[in-house]
């Protein structure tokens, strides 16, 4: 075990915090009258962005510090370019990690986990899937854990409605919001009526997938929270078929705030290097230490550790909120995902001429997208259909999802964006295990802010539960292969391309799982939990236990990885955090 020897309140994102918080004597707290801001939020992503905007709108002065800058280009705005965004050097915040602990049958050290830095954090490079299903129990479990009904699914659904600006349903739908800041949409299937894109092969595949399970009309409705069957995904895409994310929300609130309502400032390309603590009743966060222009150690363009960082400090009147993402603290949980790919006899017509490049002269598809007012492949989110199932009848809830894409996608491996762009005759099924048992570690390797982290995901290493998770994924892969065996689809299949060969036995599938499992919802490294839980870093109000004035609000705050997908639900908890902080601040005096 890596983390128990660390004090709870040092289980945070910055290696140097460990040094700061274990000092025997903290300085006296400075006069709050000299603080530069009411709040500092470190990290402008799914966790930090919504609450920073809300605090500013409520009249507070807020500084958002982020290690990246404001990147607006074809990669971050055109939905189908998400794979390019993941490999965009301007954004990349690349971590390397080991999939398993030492001694694994298929050692996979030095694997790649892409994150984005910049205004919007990873929400400007993710796959735009807007899915809050299967989180009803997750929220109700948190409510039960803290005996706090504000965490109940019923109450948390209010936050979904508050943030959503639904563009595809009737406004009378009681489960959705129509006036929030997050635009949600479905793929523009009307594009497929264009004779240029006529594609009987794709129609056969799409209709067969859609009827492979009971039809689910709206995966994000209350009644379908734990539904089994087949659904169309929805995406965070706006009315012009561009990406919608908290990036735009931050930009809008910052622009409006200069006219007097609260104050939202951004300090970009800036590394937060330490949370500053002083000697209050408990240790008290009074600000952050920052280094402008210092790239993160894990970032793609990192040139090496700087011996001495030129730092300065920013003080707060009320609180520091850490929203720096999952990988800066020492415990890890994840979804497990495994791809199975087939090549087809014909290319998808919709992909003709598409090279997914930024220059329309080199990409006729981009040229057409611009000229046709966004009426082609590039307006599409990548997944065709999602099929939710139980890996065995004994499961109380669906535990496996198969999501299908008409693309070649092995998982997040370097160069995957070129494969997506260049191979036009593929069909991928990704088996995703919900509520996986995988528990990994994030280990500090030193106390310099630019020291790399040692990360092990440790897939399936949780004893019996790990074996059950492998079996569940194996069953889902068999279901996927069965669906592709349906004559409507098999008539179009050239070959199974990934994995190739093999005898299809359980052992063969398990080897494929171990060799290619990936996961892109790493989470829960600063989990909320009860006082007596030695792993609980946060209480139910996101406060770091043992420290005043310090909260963590991002994907690391979850006690367990939620539902099937994580971004919209992390937006929801960020909005909840804003309510909690505003209420607490009204009660409190500045320190
Ligand atoms: C390739 C990929 C595709 C995905 N697709 C989907 C999807 O389709 N749907 C879905 O629901 N989820 C998806 N996810 C998951 C989702 O995008 C993330 O889990 C979510 O954005 C995490 O939010 P966060 O606030 O915790 O962190 P982030 O959004 O990553 O934000 C953290 C921010 O903190 C900043 N930061 C970090 N350290 C410091 C520091 N020391 N100083 C200053 N700033 C710092 C970073 O620059 C970054 O901007 C995907 C993930 C990956 C990897």
TrEMBL record:
Domain of life: Eukaryota
Domain Glucose-methanol-choline oxidoreductase C-terminal: 438-573
InterPro entries with a match to the protein in the record: FAD/NAD-bd_sf, GMC_OxRdtase, GMC_OxRdtase_N, GMC_OxRtase_C
Organism of provenance: Favolaschia claudopus
Protein name as catalogued: Choline dehydrogenase
Molecular-function annotations in GO: flavin adenine dinucleotide binding; oxidoreductase activity, acting on CH-OH group of donors
Cofactor: FAD
Family named by the database record: Belongs to the GMC oxidoreductase family.
């Amino acid at each position: 075990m890596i983390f128990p020897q660390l004090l709870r309140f040092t289980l945070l994102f910055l290696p140097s915090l460990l040094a700061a918080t274990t000092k025997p004597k903290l300085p006296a707290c400075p006069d709050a009258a000299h603080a530069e801001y009411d709040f500092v939020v470190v990290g402008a992503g799914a966790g930090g962005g919504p609450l920073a905007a809300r605090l500013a709108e409520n009249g507070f002065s807020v500084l958002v510090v982020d290690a990246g800058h404001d990147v607006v280009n074809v990669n971050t705005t055109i939905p189908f370019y998400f794979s390019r965004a993941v490999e965009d050097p301007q954004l990349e915040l690349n971590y390397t990690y080991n999939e398993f602990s030492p001694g694994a049958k298929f050692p996979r050290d030095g694997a790649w986990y892409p994150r984005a830095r910049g205004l919007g954090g990873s929400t400007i490079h993710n796959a735009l899937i807007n899915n809050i299903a299967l989180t009803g129990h997750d929220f109700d479990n948190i409510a039960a854990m803290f005996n706090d009904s504000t965490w109940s699914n019923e109450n948390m659904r209010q936050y979904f409605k508050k943030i959503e600006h639904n563009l595809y349903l009737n406004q009378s739908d009681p489960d959705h919001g129509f006036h929030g800041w997050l635009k949600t949409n479905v793929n523009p299937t009307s594009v497929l009526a264009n004779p240029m894109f006529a594609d009987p092969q794709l129609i056969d595949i799409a209709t067969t997938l859609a009827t492979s399970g009971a039809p689910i009309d709206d995966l994000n409705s209350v009644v379908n929270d734990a539904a089994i069957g087949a659904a169309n995904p929805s995406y965070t895409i706006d009315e012009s078929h561009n990406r919608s994310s908290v990036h735009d929300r931050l930009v809008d609130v910052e622009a409006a705030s200069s006219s007097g309502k609260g104050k939202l400032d951004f300090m970009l390309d800036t590394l937060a290097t330490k949370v500053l603590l002083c000697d209050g009743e408990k240790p008290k966060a009074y600000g952050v230490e920052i280094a402008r222009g210092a790239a993160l150690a894990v970032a793609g363009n990192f040139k090496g550790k700087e011996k001495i960082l030129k730092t300065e400090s920013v003080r707060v009147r009320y609180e520091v909120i850490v929203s720096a993402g999952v990988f800066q603290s020492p415990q890890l949980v994840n979804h497990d995902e495994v791809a199975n790919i087939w090549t087809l006899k014909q290319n998808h017509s919709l992909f003709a001429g598409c090279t997914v490049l930024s220059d329309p002269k080199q990409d006729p598809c981009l040229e057409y997208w611009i000229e046709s007012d966004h009426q082609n492949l590039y307006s599409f989110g990548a997944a065709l259909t999602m099929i939710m199932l139980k890996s065995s009848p004994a499961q109380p809830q669906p535990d496996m999802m198969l999501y299908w894409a008409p693309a070649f996608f092995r998982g997040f491996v370097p160069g995957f964006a070129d494969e997506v762009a260049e191979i036009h005759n593929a069909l991928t099924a990704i088996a995703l295990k919900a509520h996986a048992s995988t528990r990994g570690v994030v280990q500090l390797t030193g106390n310099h802010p630019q020291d790399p982290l040692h990360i092990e995901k440790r897939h399936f290493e949780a004893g019996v539960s790990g074996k059950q998770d492998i079996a569940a994924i194996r069953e889902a892969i068999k279901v996927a292969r069965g669906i592709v065996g349906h004559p409507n689809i098999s008539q179009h299949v050239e070959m199974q391309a990934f994995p190739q060969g093999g005898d299809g036995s359980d052992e063969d599938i398990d080897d494929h799982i171990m060799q290619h499992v990936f996961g892109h919802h790493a989470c829960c490294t600063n989990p909320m939990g009860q006082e007596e839980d030695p792993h609980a870093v946060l209480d139910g109000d996101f406060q770091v236990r043992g420290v005043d004035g310090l909260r963590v609000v991002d994907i690391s705050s979850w006690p367990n990885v939620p539902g099937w997908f994580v971004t919209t639900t992390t937006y929801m908890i960020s909005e909840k955090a804003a309510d909690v902080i505003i209420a607490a601040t009204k009660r409190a005096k500045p320190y």
